[in-house]
Design goal:
With 83 residues, the chain is mostly beta strands. Helix content is 0%, strand content 69%. A hairpin with a 2-residue loop joins β6 (50-56) and β7 (59-65).
C-alpha cells in the first residue's frame, strides 16, 4: 500500500508531545541522523541526544530529545523519548 503521509506520535514517560499527520520526520539515530518519508521500510532504532524535526503541512517543527527509540511500521511512526 502506498502512503502520502506519516502518522507521527511522540511520547515521553510523562505525556504525549505530538500526534498528527506529517510529511516527514528526521531523527537523531545512534548510528547517525536519518529521515523517514512515506512508504519507508519498517524499522526500530535507538535515538541519541539531538533534534527530532518533523514537517506539518509546510511548517517544520523541532523537538530536542536526550534519548529514546523509534518504531516505523507502515504509515505509523512511534517515537518514545526523554526530553
Amino acid at each position: 500500500m502506498k502512503y502520502d503521509h506519516l502518522s507521527l506520535v511522540i511520547l515521553t514517560p510523562e505525556k504525549e508531545v505530538f500526534r498528527g499527520d506529517v510529511a516527514s520526520v528526521t531523527l537523531p539515530g545512534t548510528k547517525g541522523r536519518f529521515q523517514v518519508l512515506p512508504n519507508h521500510a519498517p524499522l526500530i532504532s535507538s535515538l541519541q541526544e539531538g533534534d527530532v524535526v518533523y514537517v506539518v503541512g509546510s511548517e517544520e517543527q523541532t523537538l530536542h530529545v536526550r534519548n529514546g527509540f523509534v518504531e516505523v511500521n507502515g504509515e505509523n511512526v512511534n517515537v518514545c523519548v526523554e526530553l
